[in-house]
Structures are given as C-alpha cells and as structure tokens.
Amino acid sequence: MAKKAKASASGDAIDSWHLSGNFANFMSRIVNRMNAQLLEVLRPHKLTNAHYRIAQLLYDEGVLTVGELARRVVIPQPVLSRVLTQMETRELVVRRANAKDSRFKEVVLTEHGRAAYRKIWPRARQILNDALEDLNPTERKLLLGLLERLDIATAP
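Above: the chain's sequence. Below: its structure in token form.
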C-alpha cells in the first residue's frame, strides 16, 4: 500500500512527486504525443496504434501466442481478440493452432501485413529520431537502459 504524502510547510498533503517530479506524468505525455504523431501516419492505411504495435512485435518476433502478444503490447486478451479479428479481416495477420500445444493460438503476420509494416516503418522511425534528436548517443543509450529497467520493474 502506498504511503500518504507528508504535509508541507504550507499544509499541502501533496509533495513534489505530484506533478512536476512525477516521471510517470512525463512518460505519459511523451507517449501520448508520439502516439498522436504515429496515428497521423497510420490513418491513411486505416490502421490504429494497436494494429501497428502488434505488427511491430510480430515483424520482429515472427510468431507469438495470443497470451504472449497480450502481455507484450499490454492489451487485455478480450480487447486483443477484437483487434486481431480486425487485422485478420484486413489480411494483416493469421491466427493458427500452436503446433506443440493446440490449446494455444499463435499469431503471425501475413506477407500483406509485413509489407504494410515495412511501408509505415520509415515514418514511424522518423518520429522516434525526432524525439531523440537533442540527445547524444551516450544519453540515448542511457535512456534506453533506464527504460528497460523500468519496464522490468513494472512488469506483472
């Protein structure tokens, strides 16, 4: 259980972590801005940010089970199921039985899905590059390392 903030000299019960010192606030703002920029790239292709994130993971990983995909994109399985149905309708992905255990469904990008991802990736990459342009290579590496540690620390 989280501890209550101590009252400050002015009697406030909220400390500096409330907003200006709250890294989650900054991360949320950054991600929301970048997602808005990405959505502008995706709209002409009739794709959403969720479609893109799924395609990105599958492009890099090849095949993932539905459960693995849900954990990696942080989407509840019922919502992911609807998103995958949309993607199947657009012939971007295929769900199939796992060869080793038919209780599990695997998801794989179709060639059409791979081509769509390759078409979008350069513009998506530019959004990332633009966000990092004020950081030198050492700072970029440090930032990525810190974010990886936070990802691990906050994983269920």
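The two ends are 16 Å apart (CA to CA).
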